[in-house]
Amino acid sequence: MTDRRYMALALSLGRRGQGMCWPNPAVGCVIVKDARIVGRGFTQPGGRPHAEPVALAQAGAAARGATAYVTLEPCSHHGKTPPCAEALIAAGVARVVVAVEDSDARVSGRGLEMLRAAGIEVTLGVMAEEAARDLQGFFLKTDLGRPFLTLKLATTLDGRIATASGESQWITGPEARREVHAMRLRHDAVMVGGGTARADDPSLTVRGMGATAQPVRVVVSRRLDLPLMGNLARTAQDIPVWIAHGQDADPNLQQTWRDLGAELLPCGLEGVQLSATSVLRALGKRGLTRVFCEGGGALAASLLAADMVDELITFSAGMVLGAEGHPAIGAMGLARLAEAPKFDLISQRAVGRDIMSVWHRLEGRAAGR
């Protein structure tokens, strides 16, 4: 029970790094000696230093003979920093408790072997399920080459996101919008489709959370036909803007967006639309582990159809717009209920006057292709 208590603290620390430490995993570490916490750490912004050296620095000499609780297997390879397994050995810890093994081929058990070879007692699997969920984006990037994807939808009771004229601000209340900014903060990138970028001229930044690093802003637009005087274009030099586009996009527009400061990601097509699989793999190749998609309907439909949505978060407002309103999800061409993407309800609560529901991919389904 004590191991679980300290690992739960390490997991809570690790979550502080979510959205800020990509391409590295958001790891937490707690060092305990004689039932007293002597060191705490989590992966720092930009991915370095890692959680273990942060906690060891805080613990100092008290780390000798202590137990270290780490949410992910300590790294064993020399990258931009020395291996964390070596740091734990040099500090003289007596025991290391690890939640989950690293699937990265450069580590994958080697960190645990290094610790055992140095005479350190190793316990693996404490709160493994919770850690695997927190680190799913890192594992998906490592194993499948794509980030974890959260799809957020803010709709009326009848599933509409705008009136027939396109008016959408605001369907949900201020409390729900603040919750969304907190969600943006926990992801590496915020993504929208080209239609949303044209209709709403969004900033896609985190606001109202104090001074904080901003997520990458990603727009999916096959033809790059986006507002050149809009918020994203005006701020691309200051806050990263990445645009996933078709390889047939106008070369002049490509150069214009590069000159504005955007990074362009050419992607493959599926029919007449950009392939959702190609887009997410391009983002994974660039190191993203967690992406927060805020629509619109066509992009949401393509992500769902490609089986790429790992988490679905809905905000339901107490209003009705009718059939002429814009639907939250575009056409998916489903003929049978059996073909529909399915999710498990994880939680539901009131946020102001709206209802927030969190759904996860139905257990047993693949985590994307």
UniProtKB/TrEMBL annotation:
<dbReference type="InterPro" id="IPR016192">
    <property type="entry name" value="APOBEC/CMP_deaminase_Zn-bd"/>
</dbReference>
<comment type="pathway">
    <text>Cofactor biosynthesis; riboflavin biosynthesis; 5-amino-6-(D-ribitylamino)uracil from GTP: step 2/4.</text>
</comment>
<keyword id="KW-0479">Metal-binding</keyword>
<keyword id="KW-0686">Riboflavin biosynthesis</keyword>
<dbReference type="InterPro" id="IPR024072">
    <property type="entry name" value="DHFR-like_dom_sf"/>
</dbReference>
<keyword id="KW-0511">Multifunctional enzyme</keyword>
<dbReference type="InterPro" id="IPR016193">
    <property type="entry name" value="Cytidine_deaminase-like"/>
</dbReference>
<dbReference type="GO" id="GO:0008270">
    <property type="term" value="F:zinc ion binding"/>
</dbReference>
<feature type="binding site">
    <location>
        <position position="184"/>
    </location>
    <ligand>
        <name>substrate</name>
    </ligand>
</feature>
<feature type="binding site">
    <location>
        <position position="170"/>
    </location>
    <ligand>
        <name>NADP(+)</name>
    </ligand>
</feature>
<feature type="binding site">
    <location>
        <position position="84"/>
    </location>
    <ligand>
        <name>Zn(2+)</name>
    </ligand>
</feature>
<feature type="binding site">
    <location>
        <position position="196"/>
    </location>
    <ligand>
        <name>NADP(+)</name>
    </ligand>
</feature>
<dbReference type="InterPro" id="IPR002125">
    <property type="entry name" value="CMP_dCMP_dom"/>
</dbReference>
<dbReference type="Pfam" id="PF01872">
    <property type="entry name" value="RibD_C"/>
</dbReference>
<comment type="function">
    <text>Converts 2,5-diamino-6-(ribosylamino)-4(3h)-pyrimidinone 5'-phosphate into 5-amino-6-(ribosylamino)-2,4(1h,3h)-pyrimidinedione 5'-phosphate.</text>
</comment>
<protein>
    <recommendedName>
        <fullName>Riboflavin biosynthesis protein RibD</fullName>
        <ecNumber>3.5.4.26</ecNumber>
        <ecNumber>1.1.1.193</ecNumber>
    </recommendedName>
</protein>
<comment type="similarity">
    <text>In the C-terminal section; belongs to the HTP reductase family.</text>
</comment>
<feature type="binding site">
    <location>
        <position position="75"/>
    </location>
    <ligand>
        <name>Zn(2+)</name>
    </ligand>
</feature>
<dbReference type="GO" id="GO:0008835">
    <property type="term" value="F:diaminohydroxyphosphoribosylaminopyrimidine deaminase activity"/>
</dbReference>
<dbReference type="Pfam" id="PF00383">
    <property type="entry name" value="dCMP_cyt_deam_1"/>
</dbReference>
<dbReference type="InterPro" id="IPR011549">
    <property type="entry name" value="RibD_C"/>
</dbReference>
<dbReference type="GO" id="GO:0009231">
    <property type="term" value="P:riboflavin biosynthetic process"/>
</dbReference>
<dbReference type="InterPro" id="IPR002734">
    <property type="entry name" value="RibDG_C"/>
</dbReference>
<feature type="domain" description="CMP/dCMP-type deaminase">
    <location>
        <begin position="1"/>
        <end position="123"/>
    </location>
</feature>
<feature type="binding site">
    <location>
        <position position="50"/>
    </location>
    <ligand>
        <name>Zn(2+)</name>
    </ligand>
</feature>
<feature type="binding site">
    <location>
        <position position="207"/>
    </location>
    <ligand>
        <name>substrate</name>
    </ligand>
</feature>
<feature type="binding site">
    <location>
        <position position="200"/>
    </location>
    <ligand>
        <name>NADP(+)</name>
    </ligand>
</feature>
<feature type="binding site">
    <location>
        <position position="168"/>
    </location>
    <ligand>
        <name>substrate</name>
    </ligand>
</feature>
<feature type="binding site">
    <location>
        <begin position="296"/>
        <end position="302"/>
    </location>
    <ligand>
        <name>NADP(+)</name>
    </ligand>
</feature>
<dbReference type="GO" id="GO:0050661">
    <property type="term" value="F:NADP binding"/>
</dbReference>
<comment type="pathway">
    <text>Cofactor biosynthesis; riboflavin biosynthesis; 5-amino-6-(D-ribitylamino)uracil from GTP: step 3/4.</text>
</comment>
<keyword id="KW-0521">NADP</keyword>
<dbReference type="GO" id="GO:0008703">
    <property type="term" value="F:5-amino-6-(5-phosphoribosylamino)uracil reductase activity"/>
</dbReference>
<feature type="binding site">
    <location>
        <position position="204"/>
    </location>
    <ligand>
        <name>substrate</name>
    </ligand>
</feature>
<keyword id="KW-0560">Oxidoreductase</keyword>
<keyword id="KW-0378">Hydrolase</keyword>
<comment type="similarity">
    <text>In the N-terminal section; belongs to the cytidine and deoxycytidylate deaminase family.</text>
</comment>
<feature type="active site" description="Proton donor">
    <location>
        <position position="52"/>
    </location>
</feature>
<keyword id="KW-0862">Zinc</keyword>
<feature type="binding site">
    <location>
        <position position="154"/>
    </location>
    <ligand>
        <name>NADP(+)</name>
    </ligand>
</feature>
<feature type="binding site">
    <location>
        <position position="294"/>
    </location>
    <ligand>
        <name>substrate</name>
    </ligand>
</feature>
<dbReference type="InterPro" id="IPR050765">
    <property type="entry name" value="Riboflavin_Biosynth_HTPR"/>
</dbReference>
